Amino acid sequence: MSNGFKAILVSRDEDKKQSVDIVELNDNDLMEGDVTIQVDATTINYKDGLAITGKGPVVRHWPMVPGIDLVGTVIKSESDDFSEGDSVLLNGFGVGEAHWGAYAGHARLKSDWLIPLPKGITALQAMGVGTAGYTAMLCVMALERYGLTPDRGPIIVTGANGGVGTVAIAILSKLGFEVIASTGRTEEADFLKSLGATEIIDRAELSEAGRALGKERWAGGIDAVGSHTLANLIAQTKYGGAVAACGLAQGFDLPTTVMPFILRGIGLLGVDSVMASKTIRQEAWGRIATDLDMSKLDALTTTIGFDGIIQAANDIMDGKVRGRVVVDMADTQA
Ligand code: NDP
Prior knowledge:
The chain has 9 helices and 15 strands. Helix 1 (46-53) packs across helix 9 (309-317) and helix 2 (123-145) crosses helix 7. Strands 3, 4, 5, 6, 7, 14 and 15 form a 7-stranded mixed β-sheet that branches. The protein has a 6-stranded parallel β-sheet with strand order 10-9-8-11-12-13, with helices on both faces. It has a two-stranded antiparallel sheet with strand order 1-2. The chain has helices at residues 46-53, 123-145, 163-174, 189-195, 227-235, 259-264, 278-291, 294-300, 309-317, and strands at residues 5-12, 18-25, 35-44, 69-77, 87-91, 106-109, 115-116, 155-158, 179-183, 199-202, 218-223, 237-245, 267-270, 301-305, 324-328. The structure holds NADPH dihydro-nicotinamide-adenine-dinucleotide phosphate. NADPH dihydro-nicotinamide-adenine-dinucleotide phosphate (NDP) binds next to helix 1, helix 2 and helix 3.
């Protein structure tokens, strides 16, 4: 096959049993879109782990090329917004879930989903940030919109060693916030402190059912975990503070009460990255370029090749990934 490229294809048989294969595709196989891209770099997010392992109902079209994030070079465009040779960035919009995504040498996408690669950031750095890091930025922006400033007190970050958590710590510390990191991997305390955390707590302190209202410990929080952890974060937030909720690594339930809301005026701020508007995306990526220390990003990033994607997707589900995994896609041309 000429002009072929490697891809990861997730399929289902008649009994809905899922399988994952590395296949060779060409451009004729790709789904519809007005921009065709050579994928230069991608990453592994929690959601990609769910798609590849089948541990969560992420895939909505079968078979699927997973991968929700990419940076690529335009090789063909029917859009006035992008030309051949442009570097573009994609996060979410259902790509890797309902539309073939990043884990292939080429992707064909809708121009509405793309933004130019922000200036001053390389393809690999942008994927070091990825959806996880861009979501961390959206959480910080949500807390700022609520009026939280460093003088109000510390911010707690849960899932601290994960993708959202590590980037959130780095951004918050650069902005001058005191950061409390909650983690199941307390042996990584030195790493979390190197990113800017000032205090480390064991996530076990927060993961069981707690009191409706607890001692006021932090001004706000960024939560990637959900369930009892989020309930305890809310119950221990200082008067007038807020928690940005973006994840469900512990669970999607939220066993809380109205008490923190009606007695302390706490705000619960929902954060979604997938369908965020282009304006919000560009604001978040602009802020990443200025408010994320790139040397810290390098320290929290591990780079692998295409052949390492499936293993890394399993590792992220097993909680073995520290920080962010970037995939250099140079070896995908068949
Ligand atoms: P990671 O797997 O990189 O990080 C998740 C972290 O959560 C782990 O590293 C671990 O941190 C902690 N964790 C895992 N299991 C548990 C558990 N049972 N109880 C408590 N903590 C746990 O994932 P990401 O950072 O990429 O994503 C985090 C969450 O955010 C996911 O649920 C993801 O789906 C969601 N998300 C949502 C987005 C949105 O648009 N709303 C966008 C991006 C992500 P540690 O080892 O430090 O304890």
